[in-house]
Amino acid sequence: MPEWIYFFDLCGTAVFALSGALAAGRHKMDPFGVIVLASVTAVGGGSIRDTLMGATPVFWINDPTYIIVILSTVLLTILLVRKPKRVPQKVLPIADALGLALFTIIGAEKALSMGLSGMSAVIMGLITGVGGGIIRDILCRQVPMVLRTEIYATASIAGGIGYTCSLSFGMADLSAMFLAMSTAFAIRLAAITWHLSLPAFDLRSQKPK
Amino acid sequence: MPEWIYFFDLCGTAVFALSGALAAGRHKMDPFGVIVLASVTAVGGGSIRDTLMGATPVFWINDPTYIIVILSTVLLTILLVRKPKRVPQKVLPIADALGLALFTIIGAEKALSMGLSGMSAVIMGLITGVGGGIIRDILCRQVPMVLRTEIYATASIAGGIGYTCSLSFGMADLSAMFLAMSTAFAIRLAAITWHLSLPAFDLRSQKPK
Amino acid sequence: MPEWIYFFDLCGTAVFALSGALAAGRHKMDPFGVIVLASVTAVGGGSIRDTLMGATPVFWINDPTYIIVILSTVLLTILLVRKPKRVPQKVLPIADALGLALFTIIGAEKALSMGLSGMSAVIMGLITGVGGGIIRDILCRQVPMVLRTEIYATASIAGGIGYTCSLSFGMADLSAMFLAMSTAFAIRLAAITWHLSLPAFDLRSQKPK
Fold first, then answer.
1. Where does it live in the cell (chains A, B, C) (predicted)?
2. SS3 at position C143
């Protein structure tokens, strides 16, 4: 993996670890519980991706850097974020959108480098991007953010398709990556800012059996 | 895999994708959220089965047909099922029962073809049959259908045992498959129709700690 | 695996299967549902550990003993625990603490025997110890016990660190194992008895977005 991809990957890890640690704080967990929730949020998606592709042991087992980044993020979060009001309300969604964009492209890149098809690469990007957040939300008993009607899975899928298409049109890897990351990030950010959503598929008047 | 097994597998995939898409509609999700929920319902169980057995990359990664079937099902569902009343109340449970039966036998068949024991094959059939539905229900914050007192895991286990026993008694693969699928489907259908249930293990008067 | 480790492993399996079966009883499940919940509780953590490490097929697939232990435990639980009052209120937490200690050390031991680093071994011990219980609690729609503020993940991590450090200081495997198991068990038991908890990371006054 080129160094700058690795650097992005660690940034995404820190961002998702922060989002997991803040969610843990909202459920009043002890420090080791915070570590657990931050960790599953940060490496959950990539772990599912690697086990599905058979790329085991999964990426963080033989590289302690990921765990060190998570532990440092948790430590800094616990030390610095003692008062909720110090966290501006928009920080978490924006950080989450950045993590989503970074992880989507890194996941798709890893899938392509293992010889998977473009369609599978888009799916692996999606799993990497949304997997950790889904586990975080399930553990906190919230309906996963990805299932709510704001554009979330959509941003990841758009980024993944943008990345694989750019590559197949002959764009350089680095340019394709930046373009696709910006696309996914911009779509998600626009959805947060203007509360955009696609027309929803709504059967709610039908009572669940 | 013989072609007719493959055909059944795609039918089960469509049926479970439909059940996931309908569940998504009841939670008012956007189209890409519907795709995510339909996909995990359709290929979740088989993915868990393959990762536990070490049959990676999992089955749908190198065969785009499964994803295409899911996307087509989601598209048709969104286009055709605009009004809840058009879905007769019994369609989803019956489709779900058919998917359960198909996936159970296909999962057991794959386990046996990889050299696993009969007991492990029954378990792999169960995981294939109920795994996707459990993930769907967890993501929608429902107690999984498999955990409710109607006969559900029971039907899958009965089908799996029927299949492995029929084979060990020398029955031809095709006959054993049809027999076991019919058994699992009939048991689940009977449970739905007449609200059958096994005597439950009930400790509810004991307050959870 | 030495025989006495195997024996401990089966003890932990029975203990976690009991905890899953009792949880199933509190949700009034049918016998096969009880088997499903007891099984995921008992082998869920170890299965996640094995798939992440790439040690597939996972441990219980080629050794029917684990399934037999689970089925026997479920049978005994259903036959003997007909009246909730017969289960003293402290039995489940103490059994759970014992299972946590046993599975943590066994998971760390397996990771080290596969050549993983000490840090990864601690994490694999944690996953083995808490994974099954987390799946049990999610399926029952409870916030996982590991996320509540009583010392839980803490006990497992302490045990795992104790085990790997003892080994690196040259202690014999058997002694290190007993020492670390006792440590984890004692910490968790003390937390239950005196309602100990670490100072929590509390951001609850911040409303979830």
1. Cell membrane
2. coil
Question: What is the band of B140 on the pLDDT scale with cuts at 50, 70, 90?
Answer: confident
**Cβ–Cβ contact C152 with A under 8 A:** yes
Q: How many Cα atoms occupy the beta-carbon half-sphere of B64 within 13 Å? A: 9
Interface membership of A91 toward C (CB under 8 Å): no
Q: Does B25 touch chain A (CB under 8 A)?
A: yes
Indicate whether C53 pLDDT > 50.
yes
Average pLDDT over residues B138-157: 82
Q: Does A79 touch chain C (CB under 8 A)?
A: no
**Kind plus residue range of the DSSP H or E element containing A31:** helix A31-53
Quick check: B134 and C139 CB within 8 A?
yes
Q: What is the DSSP string of B76-113?
A: HHHHH--SGGGS-TTHHHHHHHHHHHHHHHHHHHHHHH
A29 φ/ψ angles, rounded to the nearest 5 degrees = -100, 160
Q: Which of the residues B147, B150, B205 would you substitute to probe the C interface, choosing the one with the greatest number of C C-beta atoms within 10 Å?
A: B147
Amino acid (1-letter code) at residue B57: P
Interface contact A93, partner B, CB < 8 A: no
Name which of A128, A126, A104, A95 is nearest A177 in CA terms.
Answer: A104
The answer to whether C37 contacts chain B (CB < 8 Å) is: yes
Point out the residue among B26, B31, B67 whose CB comes nearest to the CB of A203. B26
**Residue from A114, A117, A203 whose CB has the most chain B CBs within 10 Å, to mutate:** A203
Q: Is the pLDDT of residue C149 over 70?
A: no
| Residue C83 Cα, gap to closest chain A Cα (Å) | 30
Q: Which residues of C touch B130 (CB under 8 A)?
A: 36
Tell whether the model's pLDDT for residue B208 goes beyond 60: no
Question: What whole-number distance in Å separates Cα of residue A84 and Cα of residue B124?
Answer: 46
Residues of chain C with C-beta less than 8 angstroms from the C-beta of A62? 116-117, 120
Yes or no: say if C166 and C67 are a contact pair by the CB < 8 Å rule. Answer: no
- Report pLDDT for B201: 81
Residue C198 in this model has a pLDDT that exceeds 70: yes
- φ, ψ for residue C143, nearest 5 deg: -65, 125
Distance, CA of A149 to CA of A147 (rounded, Å): 6
Please work out, in degrees rounded to the nearest 5, the angle formed at the alpha carbon of residue A49 by the alpha carbons of C118 and C134: 65
Task: Write down the pLDDT at residue A209.
Answer: 44
Q: State yes or no: cis peptide before C57, omega within 30 of 0.
A: yes
For residue A96, pLDDT beyond 90: no
Q: What are the sequence ranges of the domains in chain A?
A: 3-194
Q: Which ipTM did the prediction report?
A: 0.88
b/e C78-87 (16+ beta carbons within 10 angstroms → b): beebeeeeeb
Asked if the model's pLDDT at residue C81 lies above 80, the reply is: no
Residue pair B51/B127 in contact by the 8 Å Cβ criterion: no
Q: From the CB of residue C138, how many other CB atoms can be counted at a distance below 10 Å? A: 19
Shortest CA distance from A47: residue in chain B: B51
CB within 8 Å: C25 and B123: no
Cross-strand pairs, B29: A201
Q: Is the Cβ of B2 closer than 8 Å to some Cβ of chain A?
A: no
C154 and chain A in contact, CB less than 8 A:
yes
